[in-house]
Design a protein that fits this description.
The chain is of the alpha/beta class. The chain is 40% helix and 22% strand. The strands form 3 sheets. The protein has an 8-stranded mixed β-sheet. Strands 13-12-9-10-11-14 form a 6-stranded mixed β-sheet, sandwiched between helices. It has a 5-stranded parallel β-sheet with strand order 15-19-18-16-17, with helices on both faces. β18, α18 and β19 form a beta-alpha-beta unit.
Length: 489
């Protein structure tokens, strides 16, 4: 099986030297992805595409995983699964493609699309008309529609080779990862910051993660999980770091010394001060946040300018002009919403009367009484974890019982399963466990209702991916409720 990797259009309009470097980087990134499945595969780059030739067939599951991974590599416009054969004359081409195409177009509208590389004694339109005539003659009820066909039958002529396109699917777009400088993304685990991180990765930016822990082990577990997911799915070709900074002491100092209406802005300024120092040590030139205009009071244009005043580094906000629903929709598309919607709420500082336009003099006067040694202590206690170790390095977290499959469930005594999915998800895909007590408590009610459940049973939480269930079980364990675990089908 061969694959033709089409470049993101913005790459194709670059200068010769820039384009050459971008293709070289993309080829290097693809090599890392391909090596996970077939180290003997060959990669060859041309001016507008990269071809991958597998050395052996992959098993069905491995093939699906490989093809999905190709579609998530930044810098790719489209992935085409192709079959190569010698070119031959028009009759030979028709003999090759008609048996495959005729069943697809019976009773349908269609068009033929041909792309050529090299010099030939025919044009692309010549071959399209010839094959179109053969298909019309051989397929009952078929008709040509060049504008809105039900089927588009595509092939490419590459010099003396015929490349028959079987399937195609969209790529991630953007630029190859590593072609831009690095950034440090401030991750909260909500909807916004993961989408901001994804957008930076898509533009070729190697993105490290900085997390300010306000809620203990369960909070960190959740943000680790979402950061690992983003890295593994969209940038596994480059190792990055996850830095966790304990911020409870900073929040306590803010609550003690800062006037109520300034607290939100001051918290953001303290985070940027720490981010500046972390980035300086790692020689990272820019910071990234998930802030959007007017979502909360600290994110008015004026207050954002006050926040940025504490750092000399460029602060990027990829979702700054997006509506909340737009961000949530994109989070669902890239797969981070399932993490974010189940993230326990940890609001470190809540102002009753937040100011939309903080005065600089008042802000500086308030911070003059702040004990900045708590920032030094937070930074000194920060931990750094490499991205490929984010899930493995969890020794400090409590053990969570996990049962896989109905057979394991049947052997466990006094066990109930709680389906914590949203009611709409439960209705769309009901969970059937005829021999086990099944409760339905959505995740947003679980923390309130769990303490009232009898403690003489073990409760296993269920969700589609298992991530939300583990986070909720850890959050309950943090509260001393150790009789909750995870069930996975």
């Amino acid at each position: 099986m061969n694959y033709l990797i089409k470049l993101f259009p913005e790459i194709t309009i670059k200068s010769k030297s820039a384009r050459k470097n971008l293709i070289k980087c993309l080829r290097r990134n693809l090599r890392k992805v391909v090596d996970e499945h077939d180290p003997e595969a060959r990669l060859s780059a041309s001016w507008d595409a990269i071809e991958i030739a597998l050395s052996r067939p992959l098993a069905t599951e491995a093939l699906a995983e490989f093809e999905a991974a190709l579609g998530r590599v930044p810098g790719i416009h489209e992935v085409l699964a192709v079959e190569n054969s010698p070119l031959g004359d028009f009759d030979a081409i028709a003999e090759r493609v008609l048996p495959l195409w005729l069943p697809r177009i019976a009773g349908k509208s269609f068009r033929v699309r041909v792309k050529r590389k090299g010099k030939h004694d025919f044009t692309s339109a010549d071959l399209e008309r010839y094959l179109g005539g053969k298909l019309l003659a051989g397929a009952e009820g078929a008709r040509v529609d060049l504008s809105r066909p039900e089927e588009t039958l595509a092939l490419e002529v590459n010099r003396e080779r015929l490349q028959l396109i079987g399937r195609r699917w969209p790529g991630l777009g953007g630029y190859p990862l590593g072609t831009q400088e690095s950034a440090l993304v401030l991750m909260s685990g909500g909807y916004d910051s993961p989408v901001a991180a994804y957008r930076m990765m898509r533009r070729g930016v190697k993105s490290h993660f900085l997390f300010f822990n306000l809620g203990g082990p369960a909070h960190e577990q959740g943000v680790r999980a979402i950061s690992h997911y983003l890295w593994q799915r969209y940038s596994p070709t480059h190792k990055v770091n996850f830095i966790s900074v304990p911020f409870e002491g900073v929040v306590k100092e803010i609550l003690t010394t800062i006037p109520d209406h300034l607290m939100g802005v001051v918290l953001k300024r303290m985070m940027l001060r720490v981010a500046e120092r972390v980035a300086a040590r790692a020689r990272i030139p820019s910071l990234v946040t998930g802030e959007a205009i007017a979502q909360v009071s600290s994110q008015s244009l004026h207050n954002l300018a006050m926040i940025d005043g504490v750092t000399e580094r460029l602060v990027l906000r990829p979702v700054v002009a997006d509506d909340k629903q737009t961000i949530i929709d994109e989070a669902r598309q890239i797969g981070t919403a399932a993490f974010s919607e189940s993230m326990p709420e940890y609001c470190g500082v809540i102002s009753n009367r937040p100011s939309l336009k903080v005065k600089r003099g008042e802000l500086e006067a308030a911070e003059a009484g702040f004990d900045f040694t708590v920032l030094d202590a937070a930074l000194a206690a920060a931990t750094r974890t490499r991205s490929d170790r984010l899930i493995a390095d969890q020794a400090s977290l409590p053990e969570i019982t996990t049962l896989d499959g109905e057979a394991a469930l049947a052997e466990a005594p006094r066990v109930s399963v709680i389906d914590i999915r949203h009611p709409d998800e439960r209705e769309a895909a009901p969970l059937a466990l005829p021999d086990t007590e099944l409760l339905a408590i959505p995740f947003f009610e679980l923390q309130e209702r769990a303490p009232a459940l009898p403690r003489d049973r073990h409760y296993l939480l269920y969700c589609d991916q298992g991530v939300m269930s583990r986070m909720q079980a850890l959050h309950l364990a943090d509260q001393g409720l150790a009789h909750f675990g995870v069930y996975r089908r």
